[in-house]
Specification:
191 residues; mainly alpha; 5 helices; 69% helix
Amino acid sequence: SQPQASVLQEILLLKRNVQRLRRTILPQRDAVNRIARGEFPKVVRPESYIYFRDIYDHVLRVEELVESLRDLADGVLNIYLMALNNRMNEVMKTLSVVAGIFLPLTLIASIYGMNFENMPELGWQWGYFGILGAMATIALGLVIFFRLRRWRGGLERLGSRPGFEHGLRIRRWKSVNQSSPVASFVFEAKQ
């Protein structure tokens, strides 16, 4: 429920790997398609065309899986950014409540900090304590008001909202062969 920078790094790594895999698959699709259609009769025998059509079908399936993974990675990134936005909104809500409590207190302190001679409360024996009491009453009243209105920051957690009960889970794919993203994808897809 708390967005972390490590999760963002995992998401961006997943997006980069998917993009790299996509750039690898697209040229292969076109080349295998041309071979399967018989555009190179001097290189490939006609009885092998059926096998190249089968390879072409496999390449198309991998391409569809890559597109699906790309959409999934975009969705996960959007969920992460939404969680980050929600966390920032909670912080802003808390800061707004604190500012709302201290704003009237600052106004009162600034008025009595002007040191005019004809302020009747300055001559009273209990004037200082009266103003402090009024400020404490205002602050307490605002705290109670905000609690009754449920405007406290940090009460709502992302995990308690509908649709987020499962949290955000990202699994790093281990590559079988570092030089071939296709091999690592196919290996992970079979497991």
